[in-house]
C-alpha cells in the first residue's frame, strides 16, 4: 500500500515573481514535484515522475542560465552554483535508484526540494528578475544586454 510523501508545497501568489515565463516554469516545477511526492515511495514506479521533474529542472535552470548570461552575470555565481548542486544531487539520486535499487535518497530529496525551492525563488530568482527589469532585458526577445549596461556583480543578489 502506498503512503505517498506529504509534500505541502503549493503554488501561490507568494511564489510568483511577476515575470510570466519564470512564474509558469516555477508553477510547473511545483506541479511536477508534487506529482513525484505522490509516488516517491513506489520504487521503480516513481522513476517516470522523477525523470519528468529532472528533465523540467534541467530546462528550467538552462533558461535561467541563458538569461543570466544575457544580463552579463559573472559565469561563476552563487545562483548558478545552486543550480549545479541541485542537478548534481538529482542525478546522483537517480543513479542510486537505477543502479543500486536505493530509493530512500529519492524519497528524502522530495521534501528537501520542497523546502529549498521557495527560498531559492525568493532570493536568487527574484534577484534575477529584478536585474532583468533594471537592465531592460526582455526574456521574450532574448537579446543580450548591451555591453555598456551596468551589469551586476556576482548573481545580482546580496550573497556576496
Keyword list:
mainly alpha; metal ion binding; Hemerythrin-like_sf; Four Helix Bundle (Hemerythrin (Met), subunit A); oxygen carrier activity; oxygen transport; Haemerythrin_Fe_BS; 160 residues; 62% helix
Task: Return the string of H and E elements.
Answer: HHHH
CATH level-3 fold name of the domain at 28-135:
Four Helix Bundle (Hemerythrin (Met), subunit A)
N-to-C span: 48 Å
CATH architecture group name of the domain at 28-135: Up-down Bundle
The unreliable regions are none
The number of E-state strands comes to 0
**Number of separate helices:** 4
Q: Report the biggest beta sheet as strand number plus sense, adding barrel if it closes.
A: none
Approximate helicity band: 55-70%
Mean pLDDT: 89
According to CATH, what is the class of the domain at 28-135?
A: Mainly Alpha
Strand content: under 5%
Domain Hemerythrin-like: 21-127
Organism: Inhella inkyongensis
Keywords: Iron, Metal-binding, Oxygen transport, Transport
Pfam family, one: Hemerythrin
Write structural notes for this entry:
GO terms for molecular function: metal ion binding; oxygen carrier activity. This is Hemerythrin-like metal-binding protein. The chain has a domain at 28-135: Four Helix Bundle (Hemerythrin (Met), subunit A) (Up-down Bundle), CATH 1.20.120. Helices cover 62% and strands 0% of the residues. It has 4 helices and no strands. The longest helix has 32 residues, at 104-135. It is elongated and about 55 Å long. The relative contact order is 0.17.
Amino acid at each position: 500500500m502506498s503512503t505517498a510523501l506529504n509534500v505541502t508545497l503549493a503554488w501561490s501568489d507568494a511564489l510568483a515573481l511577476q515575470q510570466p515565463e519564470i512564474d509558469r516554469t516555477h508553477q510547473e516545477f511545483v506541479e511536477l514535484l508534487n506529482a513525484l511526492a505522490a509516488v516517491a515511495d513506489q520504487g521503480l514506479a516513481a522513476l517516470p515522475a522523477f525523470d519528468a521533474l529532472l528533465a523540467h529542472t534541467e530546462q528550467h535552470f538552462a533558461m535561467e542560465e541563458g538569461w543570466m548570461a544575457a544580463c552579463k552575470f559573472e559565469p561563476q555565481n552563487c545562483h548558478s552554483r545552486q543550480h549545479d548542486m541541485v542537478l548534481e544531487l538529482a542525478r546522483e539520486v537517480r543513479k542510486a535508484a537505477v543502479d543500486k535499487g536505493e530509493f530512500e535518497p529519492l524519497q528524502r530529496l522530495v521534501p528537501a526540494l520542497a523546502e529549498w525551492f521557495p527560498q531559492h525563488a525568493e532570493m536568487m530568482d527574484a534577484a534575477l528578475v529584478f536585474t532583468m527589469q533594471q537592465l531592460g532585458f526582455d526574456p521574450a526577445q532574448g537579446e543580450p544586454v548591451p555591453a555598456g549596461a551596468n551589469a551586476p556583480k556576482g548573481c545580482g543578489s546580496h550573497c556576496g
